[in-house]
Structure formats: C-alpha cells, structure tokens
Amino acid sequence: MIPLWIIDFGEDKDSSAKLRSLLDALSAAQKPYWKYTHVECKPVANATDCRTLVKELVEEGRKCYNKFIQEGYNINNFQIAVLGTANEELSQSIFAPIAGLLRDNLPRIVSDHANLGVEITGILFIPRTINQTDDVQKRQKAAMLLEAINMLSEQVGTRHYNRVIAYQDVQYQNARFYPGLSTEERTEFQFQLLSHLFLGSSHTEKIFDKVGTEGGIFSLGVASIYYNSTQHRSHQLKLLLNKLLEQFKDKDNADAAYSQKCIHEMFDKDSANPEAITTRLREGCCSLDIDLRKMEGEADPHPVWDLFQANLLSKYYRKYLKYMPARLVRFMQSLSYILLSKYSEIIRNNRKAAVEKFRVLLQSIYNKSLTDTSNRFATIAQLESFFQEAKEYLKKLKATREAQQLEIVPVPDYLRMDYDKCLADEDANKPSAILDNLKKNLRREPVVLSLVVRCFLLGILLVFTLIPLIRMLTPNIVNLGDISKYEWLWIFLLFFLPLIVEFGFKLRRHFKRVKRLKYRLLASTLVSVNKRLSQFLVEELKQFYEEMAQECDTQLEKLATFRQLIATPEADTGDIILPETKFNQPLVGGSFQDQKLILDNTAAEAEVRIMDTPRRLSTLDKEELLTLLQSSFKNLDVLSAACLPGSENLAENAESFVDAIKRYFNPQLHIHTADSIGAMLTLLGTKVDLLPLVHMAGINGMLFSTASNNPPVVKITNTPRAFAGMTTISDNATSDYAMITTWQKLSPGIYSQIVCNCSLDPLPPLTFADKLALYYGYYKRKNLAYTLAESPIRISKDEMDTLDELINME
C-alpha cells in the first residue's frame, strides 16, 4: 500500500465528516496507511499566520511520517494530498503556495530526507455555481486562486505541486451520465479520486505514470467496480433471506382452520371449559369439621349435673343462657370470616396456578405451529391467527359463565337437612329469624331445681290422691287383679311419674330443639358463605379467562413488535478495501444511475435445493419459500429465537433469529464464484454490461471546452476482454477492483475568468496568498519579472526579501 498524508483545507463540516467516515470505512489493512488532517484555522493573512499554520503542519507531518516508519511502511516518495475549495477563504489564502511551504519545511518533517522524495498532489473543488455569485470581489478572489495555480504550474511545474486535479459537482457536458452532485456525493467523488491516485502497491505503476509524468492541471473522471466472492455469496444469501423473511412476516400467510384445530386439540387435552375450571378452582376445599361445643362453649356449671351448686343460677341462667345468642352471632361472624378468607385464598391460588398452567399451554403453540409439518404456514401471521382465535374462544367462554349456588365449603352430613332447608327457604331461615326462635326457646327453659321440687310435690299429690281412689274403686268398680297386690309399685310410679315426664321428655326435647337451632344457624352461615364464595369463584373464573385473553393480547403485541424488528441482514462485504459509494459499486447487485452491470442475473445467481431439486433464487414461488422457511425451524437455534414467551428483549430475539436463519441457509447455497474480478468478468462474459461503469467514469467538470480523446486508464489484475483497448495497470493489491480513470489535461490551465465570470483587468490588489504564490513562482527562481493573470506586477526585491525572511523564521 502507498502511505498518504491528506491535508484538508475545506471549511464545510458536512463534507469533512463524510470524508472522515469514508476513510474510517477503509479496510483494516488499508486504513493505517492514510493519515487525515483537517485544518481548522482562520484565513492566512500575514507572515505570522503563515508561520503558525506551517508549525502546526510540520508537527502533524512529523507525527504522520514517524508513524509510517514505526509501522515499517515502505516509503519511496512521501505522498501528500492537499484538498481545497476554490470559493472558500482559507483555501484562497493558502492552497496555491502550501506546496512550496511544505517542500521548504520537509527537513523538519522528515529526519532522513536525504534519500526521500516528496510528491504533493493538489485536489481542488471548484463549485459549478461559482460564476453565479453576486459578489464580484468573491468571484475575483476565486479567479486569482486559479490564476495562481496556473502560474505555479507553468513556472515551477512538478517542483511545486506535482499535479493539481480540479473537479466540480457536475460531469462534463459530453457525458452528463450523472446529474449535479450533492455535498455528500461530491465528497464521495473526492474520495474516489484519492483511491484511484493512491490506492495500490508502492512498487507498481500509478495513474500519473500513465497520464502525465511532467505534471500540470488535470480534470479526471473516476469510477470503479469490485468483486468479492464472500460478498457475492452474502448478497445472494441476503436475497434468499429477504424472500423468506417477507413470507415469515406476511400478514396474509395464515390458516384460520388450522388455528381453530389447534385450539380444540389444546383445550380438549387440558379442558378449559367452565365446569372443568370450576372443579380446578375448588381443589383443596375440604369438608367443614366443627365441634359444636366450640360454637358457644360448654355450660359450666351444668343445669342438670351441677344442680346443687350455689352459683348455678347466676352463672348458667343469668349469664350463660342470656348471652348465648350474642356468643353464637360472634362465632358465626368469625366462622364466616375464616371460611371466606381460607377458601377464597384457596380459590385464588388455584386460579393463579391454572393461569400459569394454561399460559404455558398457550405459549406452547410456538413450538407446535412452527414445527408441525401439517401446518402450511410457519409464520408470524399463523401464530397471530392462533392467539386471535384463542382470545375470541376464551372471551366466549367467559361470557357464557353465569353465577350459581355451589357448595364451595362441603356440607357435613349432620348439617345436610338444615342446609337444604335453608337453601329451600332462605327468608324463613335467616340468621335473625333463627336467633329469635332460639331466644324464645331459651326463655322457656325451666330452672331444674324448681322443676324437681314441682315434680316431687306433684308426685306426692298423685300418690295421696290416686292411691285412696284406687283403693275405693277396687275391686267393685275397677278390678285391677293381681296388680292391686303391688300397691307400693303404684306409689313409686306415681311419685316419680312427673319427674320422668319432665326430665325424660320435655327437658330433653328442649335441649334437642336448642341444639337443632344451633345447627340451623350454622347451616344458614354456610349457605351465606357458599353463596359469597360462589360469587367469588365466578369472578375468579372470569378473571382466569380475562388473564388468558390478556396473555393472547401480550403475545399478539410481541409478534407485532417482532415483525417490525426483523430486518434483512446487511450483506457481508468480505475483505473489501473501499466502502461502497455512488462511484464505487459491487459487480454483483451494483448499479450506476440505476443501470445494472449484470444483464442476466441468473449468471451470478445462487441455487438452493428443494426436495433434491436445485432451484434458482429468482424462480422460487410462494409454496417453495414456505417449505424452506418451515425446514429452517428444524434448527434449534432458529426455533429458539422465534419462540417469544418469556423474552425480555425482542430486539435481541429478532437479531438472533435473523442470524440463526442466516447460518442455517448459508451452507445450502450453491453459487459460481471466481477468485478475482478479472476472472469473474471472464466467467460472466457477455452477460455483463460495463457501459454504466464507463459512463460513470466520464470526465468531471466544465473546466475545458473540448472533449478528451485520451484513452481511459483501467487498473485491474488479469485484464479480461471487457477492457480491451484501454490503457491498463495491473496491481495485485487491488485484485478485487476494476478502476477506470478518464483524464484531460487543462492546457494552458484553468480558464479562471470564464469559470468565475469575472474580469481581472485591472488586476485586483494582491493578497498575502498572491504574494506567496509569486514568491514561489518567481522570486525563488531568481526571476523578478512577476506576472499573474497575464498582467505584469511590480514588486520590489526588498519587499520579497522581507517576505522571505518572515516566512522562513524559526
């Protein structure tokens, strides 16, 4: 490669940024050889400014040269390219004389300069609209710069600038293949100039070895094509991937019937109907097990067993019985709260577990749909179709669910009768009604001791009343037979008969009635709890379907985002030295002004096998593309990247998916390639049209009046017939390129007054730059007959001696 130092005096920041980006895009092998310095300073108006600028450039040049030497680069001549713009003040103040200043200061830049030459190339941009500027003085300044360049080229030749290349933002009128160039495009042309002039091996011929070894001012046309087998393959792979990804993202590639089939298979396998989900939500709801004694506590003391305790009246009758209803109410409230909390939590947890299970079930459609050979569409649209159908199905199930009375808390057998009665007639079995009934019964509960006393008195009364009566009636009126012999037994029975009746029947029935009312109250509480839990279960059931529908929405949103994020990957450029620009295009897939270089795309087109049959990429139909796409999901990397459930970064998924599918299909492509652009052009033969390249390389600018009849120069290795008749330069360093340069020497120079639409008669006042140009054009050559723009100039030797001293002060 040829080491190059680029000095840019251009003031346009956009142009400088674009040029930097192009230089940064050079291949890793080429980039270190080119050093770019953008000069940002005010125009050079005097010797002080000149010395300051030269000092900065010397420092930059020294660093640049030392870096080249440290890297071991072979430098025959130190190549310097100076970039300027004719209508900018900085270029007007320094572009013309800078070559002389750099040559004078070369010993300060290059330590071993004795055996080293220097070549300085000026590249000057002259806007085509420079002649339309309203300010005459500005046009004159530009014209004076051009005249200074003409004068230095004529008077000093290659001892100042080795050559100057002038270019514009328009092509020569005889060509006009491309229209006026934007700032970005003319910077690309500038970069193309640098590439044609300095890209290549240091030991081979250069463009100006063929064009103009004696130097001068030139207008060039430059364009190039390149071929790289890696890029060729990558470009064809990109075409295939583009087709496949279009099918994968196509919103019409879906089958609703397949989606409905998947829904029924999925939900039949693990039923999602309301009855099944209701059963699932009730799992873990066990039967009620309540000790009635805990409802309101045991009586202590007991009215029967603790009959003779002194505190029986106060504790039992006045306290226990009195507050029994309140205790029962508190107990039922507490029981209701506990049951509601416990069983609602069970239902809620069951719903969450069911949601997670069915969420996983819904998400499993990715693997099924993408790998199912019976599915014609392994696409985003098919997945979206499933989730849309599933969403509608779930919403339909949700809408059909109505509230009903369920036994969420199972009813024990001992409460079944009371529970059923409460269900049958809730109004009559309200807790308040049951409590009122209970209170009435409690108020009728007798005091046992008084009951005993009454029974004893009643027994005595019966004995003393009935026994004499029996004696009187027996045997004349009532014949009791042998029973009359057991009068003592009658006395015993009559005495204890009231006690037996009261305790054995009435009191026992009272206690059973109180207990039954307690059961009834408990059953009523269970009815209320189950009613509320049934409502809660229905809400949870609806919540289940709602969350499942939301999961469908979530997956639909992910798929829509995934579709947007998936992009066809950029083709791999391979080992390409220069970045692709308007003037540098790939042979395969490239074009100039929309004119393709390859006439028959099949000549460079890849093939892919489908069912053991090779098919060109351009001939693949929709069904074949869908088949190829489906086959890619056999690859676990492709499948994994396309499965979105749980994915937190869809951008990474999209990138991974494209990378995986790219890796999958890359080895399946069959393509004809060559090892150099010359060999590839030979392989393509008549299927290549290089006229767009030749037209693009037509001479740039409107700086001369006659078309060039100079033969173009092409730099290419293994020259094919396509470039027969052109002057060729062979350079193995650019074996991937065919670089065409057309040229015209501007003789006797640039017609400055015509280009700038101004007159230089009389000559405008000389600027510091003009004097510096005269200094290098005449004074340094011991010639004091100064002439600029064909006008004699009177400058004293003393003035020039002073200028010589000022600019050469250390």
Write up what this structure looks like.
The protein is α/β, with parallel strands linked by helices and 810 residues long. Helix content is 52%, strand content 10%. It contains 27 helices and 17 strands. Strands 1, 2, 3, 4, 5, 6, 7, 13, 14 and 15 form a ten-stranded mixed beta sheet that branches. Strands 11-10-12 form a three-stranded antiparallel beta sheet, with helices on one face. Strand 16 (787-788) and strand 17 (791-792) form a beta hairpin. Helix 10 (256-269) packs across helix 15 (380-400) and helix 15 (380-400) runs antiparallel to helix 19 (487-565). It is elongated and about 185 Å long.
Helix content: 40-55%
Oligomer: single chain
Major sheet characteristics: 10 strands, mixed
- The span between the termini is 35 Å
Strand content: 5-15%
State the main characteristics.
single chain, 810 residues, alpha/beta, ten-stranded mixed sheet, three-stranded antiparallel sheet, 10% strand, elongated
Outline the fold blueprint.
Elements: E1 4-8, H1 13-24, E2 34-38, H2 47-70, E3 77-85, H3 89-94, H4 98-104, H5 106-109, E4 117-125, H6 136-155, E5 163-167, H7 183-198, H8 207-211, E6 217-226, H9 229-249, H10 256-269, H11 274-281, H12 293-296, H13 312-363, H14 365-371, H15 380-400, H16 413-424, H17 431-443, H18 448-473, H19 487-565, E7 584-586, E8 591-592, E9 595-596, E10 607-610, E11 613-616, H20 622-632, H21 636-642, H22 650-665, E12 669-670, H23 677-684, H24 691-696, E13 713-715, E14 727-729, E15 737-745, H25 752-755, H26 768-777, E16 787-788, E17 791-792, H27 797-807
